[in-house]
From TrEMBL:
Keywords: Membrane, Transmembrane, Transmembrane helix. The keyword Membrane applies. The chain crosses the membrane at residues 6-25. This is Septum formation initiator family protein. It comes from the Bacteria.
Length: 93
């Protein structure tokens, strides 16, 4: 009788272990798929950032046109601030 009960217990434990293993294996497969997607997105973003830096002009910050446009923008902002503080309306172009 004891041998029969131990055999039944073994089969029940084996079934429980099988169900647990099946569930964990499904979670593992889902994790692997999500990891692959995350890695692809990370690589894609990294390539986009690298391209952005590589496509930029070599002497971007030494460009005089860039400096002139920056000065013009700053002067426009100063004019707008001064006109707003006086109560004048800003006329947009």
């Amino acid at each position: 009788m004891a041998k029969k009960n131990s055999g039944v217990k073994f089969i029940i434990y084996l079934i429980i272990f099988g169900v647990f293993f099946y569930y964990e294996y499904g979670l593992y497969k889902k994790y692997i798929q999500d990891k692959i997607i995350r890695d692809r997105v990370r690589e894609e973003k990294t390539r986009e950032i690298e391209k952005a830096f590589l496509l930029r002009d070599k002497d971007f910050y030494l460009d005089r046109d860039y400096e002139r446009k920056l000065k013009d923008l700053k002067s426009k902002q100063m004019i707008e601030k001064s006109s707003l503080s006086k109560g004048d309306e800003v006329i947009g172009q």
